[in-house]
Amino acid sequence: xxxxxxxxxxxxxxxxxxxxxxxxxxxxxxxxxxxxxxxxxxxxxxxxxxxxxxxxxxxxxxxxxxxxxxxxxxxxxxxxxxxxxxxxxxxxxxxxxxxxxxxxxxxxxxxxxxxxxxxxxxxxxxxxxxxxxxxxxxxxxxxxxxxxxxxxxxxxx
Length: 157
What we know:
about 160 residues, alpha+beta, five-stranded mixed beta sheet
């Protein structure tokens, strides 16, 4: 049964983003334009390195400053999962998540930081464990002060 199990594994690992099923954000009105940051911290993700098809995995931290629409917190986790389900690079996941949220929610800003361990680094190359960080910023988070607030809140954990 090994060939069938491996085929099923690869179908699951590489199930996005081409198939249908990209999360849709609900249309929720947001009446308070002075609302503060919304952060989903520590969202687990896993993917496969596009360079050598070895796994990488870690935690994603997604923050956005609401505009007119809000996302359900589970939706943020689904977006991270959706863009992780293909051979890719960690940097691309961060950029894709930020862009998707920016385009679909129209927030005042989006910040995404991924912290990941890469088995390609641990099993090959340097053969050392390391945490790799990748980030993407849109809107107000391109300015230093909101970005600094995001990073300070993240580091307080």
